[in-house]
Amino acid sequence: MGKMWNQVYWGNTVLLYLLTAAGIIIAWLILKIIKGRIIGLLKTIASRTHTNFDDLLVKATEKFILPLVYLFINYHIIRQLNLSERTENVLGVAMLVVSTFFVIRLINFSLHGAVVVYMEQKNEPAERIKQLSGILLVIKAIVWSLGFILLLDNMGYDVTTIIAGLGVGGIAIALAAQNILGDLFSYLVIFFDKPFEVGDFIVAGNDSGVVEKIGIKTTHVRSLTGEQLVMPNSEMVKDVIHNFKRLERRRIVFSLGVVYYTSAGRLKGIPSLLKNIISTKDKATFDRAHLQSFGDFSINFEIVYYLESADYVDYMDTHHAICLDIFEVFEREGIEFAFPTQTIFMSKQGKEEARILN
After folding, report:
1. pLDDT at 60 (0 to 100)
2. Which residue from 124, 158, 351, 355 could staple onto 119, CB 3.0 to 4.6 Å apart?
3. What is the DSSP letter of 332?
C-alpha cells in the first residue's frame, strides 16, 4: 500500500496528487461555507441599513472577491507540485489572465454600482439613471483597455510601442470622428447640466416636442404632429432650449380694443372690470390692466395675469373662461369691441355729387 502512495507520475507521487486534490476540495468547502453563512449574514445586516453601499460591497465580495481568493488558493496549492518549466509558465499566464479579468470586472462593477447608488440617494429619476449606460460604457471601455495594456506589460511584452501606436491611432480616430466625439461631449454636457430630461416638452430652434430618449449621439423627440425627431446632441446644446416642463407659472399677456366713442367714465372702469373677472378664476393671478395706446381703429388695453400652473390645457381652459366673461360683462355694460372701421367726412359739394350720382 505504501508503495502505491509513493508511485511517481510526471515528477510527483500519488500521495502529493491526493493532498493537492484534498486541498482544493477543502478550500472549496471553506469558501462555500463562507458564502452560505457569512455572506448570507452580511446580506441580512446590509438590508437593514439605510444605505445601499454596504449591499454593493457584499455583492462585489460574493461575485468577484471570493472567486478570486479561491483562484489564488488553488494556484498556490497546485504550485506545490513539481511542475515542468513550461507547465509553470502556462499556469502563471493563465492565472494572470484570469485574475486580470476578475479585477477589471470588479472595478467596473464597483464603479457602476457606486454611481447608481449615489444617484439613487440623490433621488434621481429612473430614466436619468438609465442614461448612465452611455457614460459608463465609455469608462468601462477605458478600464478594459488599461487592463489589457497592464496584462501585456506583466506578461513581458514591450507596451511602449503599443501605447505609442494607440496614441497615434487615437489622434487619427479623433480627427476622423470629430462629429461623433462632439456629440459625445454634448451628451456629457446634457447629462451633467440637465437642460432637459426624458418626458420634458422642449422647443429647440424650429423644432418642439416631448423628449423620449437621450442617447450618446442623438436625442429623440416626439413632435406634436406625431413624427419622431432625431436631433444631434451637438446641435441641441448650441440652440436656446425652452423647457416648458419646468414652467412653474405662466405669464399671459393679451390685448383688446374698444371703440372710440366709448365714454371716459367707462374707459376708466375697464381695468377694474378686467381685474374682477380674472381674480375670480382659481389658478389665475391678476397683475395689471392699462390703456396702452390709441390705435387706428380702437382704444387698446393691455392685460397681464399669471397662471399658477405649467399645464397648457389649464392655461387654455382659464383663458377661454376669461375671454367669455369679458365678452359677457362688456355686453352688459354697453362697452363695444372695436373692429377695423373708417369714418369718411364729405364736404357739401361731395354730398351733392353723391346725391346726383345716386
Report:
1. 78
2. 124
3. H
407659472: which residue's cell?
249
Choose the weakest-confidence range: 81-85, 132-136, 294-298. 81-85
Q: Is the pLDDT of residue 208 over 50?
A: yes
Whether 64 contacts 105, CB under 8 Å: yes
What are the b/e assignments for 16-47, b being 16+ CB within 10 Å? Answer: beeebeebeeebeeebeebeeeebeebeeebe
Q: Which residues contact 240 (CB under 8 A, 6 or more apart)?
A: 204
- Residue 346 corresponds to which cell in the numbers above? 364729405
CATH class of 250-333: alpha beta
CB count within 10 Å of CB 177 equals 12
CA separation (Å) from 230 to 210, 217, 227?
12, 10, 10
CATH class, range 190-246: mainly beta
297/223 Cα distance (integer angstroms): 39
23, 79 contact by CB (below 8 A): no
Which of 337 and 71 is assigned the larger pLDDT? 337
Look over the chain and give the mean of its residue pLDDT values, rounded to a whole number.
Answer: 78
Q: Which of 53, 45, 64 is nearest to 114 (CA)?
A: 53
Question: What single-letter DSSP state applies at residue 35?
Answer: I
**Quick check: 31 pLDDT over 70?**
yes
Q: Are 254 and 307 in contact (CB under 8 A)?
A: no
What angle separates helix 85-121 from helix 66-78, to the nearest 10 degrees? 170
**Alpha helix locations (H) across 155-263?**
159-176, 178-193, 233-238
Residue 114's identity, in one-letter code, is A
Strands 201-204 and 207-214: antiparallel
How far apart are the C-alpha atoms of 232 and 75, rounded to whole Å?
A: 51
Q: How far is CA 128 from the centre of its chain?
A: 4
Map out the domains of the chain as residue ranges: 2-176, 190-246, 250-333
Statement: residue 162 has pLDDT above 70: no
Single-letter amino acid code for the residue at 233 = N
